Amino acid sequence: MLKPLGDNVVVKMIEAEEVTKSGILLATNSKEKSQAGEIVAIGNGKLSDGKQIEMQVKIGDKVVLNKYVGTQVQCDDQEYYILSQKDILAIIE
Predict the structure, then answer these.
(1) H helices of 8-78, where?
(2) Longest Cα separation, the chain
């Protein structure tokens, strides 16, 4: 598994819906990249002015991300994104 450093997180993207709310089936190439994911690993936080700033998210949180962020990586036949905590817009409750 991946262990991120600093204020980075590892996110497994949640697949976008294949059917619209009105029941229209979307073609694979017409689906937009999902902006939601689940956090699977977090770093230790960031050091700022000699103080440790703790992470605001935890493993298992479902989050909304900026649209074009992160580094895509493959690990154990699974696709993940590594990104900074500042690229997370919200936690889905």
Answers:
(1) none
(2) 54
Cα separation values, 8 from 46, 79, 81, 85, Å? 9, 16, 10, 6
Residue 2 lies in a domain: no
What is the span of the domain harbouring residue 78? 8-92
Q: For residue 1, tell me if it sits in a domain.
A: no
pLDDT value, residue 61 = 97
Q: What is the C-alpha separation between 62 and 9, in angstroms, rounded?
A: 12
pLDDT in single tens digits along all 93 residues of the chain: 899 999 999 999 987 656 666 766 655 554 456 789 999 999 999 888 989 888 999 999 999 999 888 999 999 899 999 999 999 999 999
CATH number at residue 79: 2.30.33.40
In a domain, 19, yes or no: yes
Number of domains in the chain: 1
